[in-house]
Design a protein that fits this description.
The chain is mainly alpha-helical and 215 residues long. It has 2 domains: 47 residues, Arc Repressor Mutant, subunit A; 162 residues, Tetracycline Repressor, domain 2 (Orthogonal Bundle), CATH 1.10.357. Helices cover 72% and strands 0% of the residues. The protein has 11 helices and no strands. Helix 1 crosses helix 6, helix 4 packs antiparallel against helix 5 and helix 4 runs parallel beside helix 7. The longest helix is centred in the middle third of the chain and has 29 residues. The protein is elongated, with a radius of gyration of 20 Å. The mean pLDDT is 90.
């Protein structure tokens, strides 16, 4: 298969546009070829089939965001700066390619059988970065030491993904990347006052600790 050529990228870009507009399951090779301005047979010079196109998109997305996220984090000096840079990069990547955002956010669960490997790589990379940021924040004294890190990683990732989903489903009419600052403020300061913190217990059930303690 021919990869990393202008024609390959032309077809992949067209396919993601078609997937975003019609949904992966309802899209056809003919529709992709028409959008790309090529013959149906040309698609098969670059991709095995429609499934391969989707997998290639996920693999390339994972590779791209992995380097982008690590670079963004390294540019920060403190844990808070690193967390802000990570979230801003996450939001900016999806804002810069809305069709890709629609496909990635919409098809991950629907096409899990096809995309589970690159998706798991993406999730592990993201959790690894958050773990390092949390550890630094604990050293700096800006993040609590009694947190269940496994839960923190899922909380941050889940909140950012929900903000992206909201942006997609509300017409993409606001600056997605600008949401990084309020998200970081929420993660660092939380939603409770000291009075509220004193009103709840600190000890979680053992099965919760086993599940989210540091995974």
């Amino acid at each position: 298969m021919k990869r990393n050529t202008d024609k390959y990228q032309q077809i992949l870009t067209a396919a993601i546009k078609v997937f975003a507009e019609r949904g992966f399951s309802q899209s056809t090779i003919s529709q992709i070829a028409q959008e790309a301005g090529v013959a149906d047979g040309t698609i098969y010079l670059y991709f095995k089939n429609k499934d391969d196109i989707l997998v290639q998109f996920y693999e390339r997305m994972t590779e791209h965001v992995s380097s982008r996220f690590w670079e963004a984090v390294e540019e920060g000096q403190t844990a808070v700066e690193k967390l802000h840079n990570l979230i801003h990069a996450h939001l900016d990547v999806f804002q810069s390619q809305p069709n890709g955002a629609i496909v990635y956010q919409g098809e991950t669960h629907l096409q899990w059988r096809l995309v589970q490997e690159p998706t798991r790589k993406m999730s592990k990379m993201y959790r690894d970065i958050i773990s390092k940021v949390v550890a630094l924040g604990q050293q700096e004294g800006v993040i609590r030491n009694d947190l269940y890190v496994g839960l923190v990683k899922r909380l941050i990732n889940g909140a950012v993904e929900e903000v992206i989903n909201t942006w997609i489903h509300t017409g993409r009419d606001h600056d997605l990347a600008a949401m990084a600052e309020p998200l970081v403020e929420l993660f660092i300061n939380g939603i409770g006052t000291r009075k509220g913190q004193q009103a709840i217990g600190n000890q979680a059930p053992q099965d919760f600790i086993d599940q989210y303690g540091d995974t």
